[in-house]
Write a structure and sequence with these properties.
heterodimer; A: 112 residues; mainly beta; six-stranded mixed beta sheet; five-stranded antiparallel beta sheet; globular; B: 114 residues; seven-stranded mixed beta sheet; four-stranded antiparallel beta sheet
Chain lengths: 112, 114
């Protein structure tokens, strides 16, 4: 079993709709959770992080965390063609000394 | 700040040759990470340093790989001898020792071993 699992996609969503990306993780001791966006041929870029159960909103992005279910999600509201990218879920420990384990990513395509 | 700087951006080499990848982290960042990304295996952590000291190198594939950080502003990842299966994009990332520990990635080095 992979430590961080994501559906590879592609996930196709019409422009203006909500895109929902999901991620599960195996280590119950994980304390920090991240979503990175990676455009084709570019480096990953952090867009959201969450540490506590519940929702965290930042503009059009909402990260959701459920530690009991070991589940993290990212919602993108009012999807734009510029949101088309691969989204990497990453999970880490309790401090900056801990490794961050990345999922293999979900490819998101926003169709006009 | 210029961000994380990596060189070269592209490297093509023949099997058996030595390859050296270079990274300059963001000034003031305490942590430096080396990752490898392939279609098959995704983004894998190879090694990371804190204050120039290697903390975890369990991701280094084998003895052909070595990494050094002689000072706070420079790190190298060396592959000797290189093999075709080492072909990948190698990213360097850095972060400061803060609560968020957001990792800032460099542009990557695309390595092709023929």
């Amino acid at each position: 079993q992979k430590e961080v699992e994501q559906n590879s996609g592609p996930l196709s969503v019409p422009e203006g709709a909500i895109a929902s990306l999901n991620c599960t993780y195996s280590d119950r001791g994980s304390q920090s959770f991240f979503w990175y966006r990676q455009y084709s041929g570019k480096s990953p870029e952090l867009i959201m992080f969450i540490y506590s159960n519940g929702d965290k909103e930042d503009g059009r992005f909402t990260a959701q965390l459920n530690k009991a279910s070991q589940y993290v999600s990212l919602l993108i509201r009012d999807s734009q063609p510029s949101d088309s990218a691969t989204y990497l879920c990453a999970v880490g420990g309790y401090s900056s000394a801990s490794k961050i384990i990345f999922g293999s990513g979900t490819r998101l395509s926003i169709r006009p | 700040d210029a961000g994380v700087i990596q060189s070269p951006r592209h490297e093509v080499t023949e099997m058996g040759q030595e390859v050296t990848l270079r990274c300059k982290p963001i000034s003031g960042h305490d942590y430096l990470f080396w990752y490898r990304q392939t279609m098959m295996r995704g983004l894998e952590l190879l090694i990371y340093f804190n204050n120039n000291v290697p903390i975890d190198d369990s991701g280094m594939p084998e003895d052909r790989f070595s990494a050094k950080m002689p000072n706070a502003s420079f790190s190298t990842l060396k592959i000797q001898p290189s093999e075709p299966r080492d072909s990948a994009v190698y990213f360097c990332a850095s972060t400061e020792d803060s609560k968020t520990y957001e990792q800032y990635f460099g542009p990557g080095t695309r390595l092709t071993v023929t």
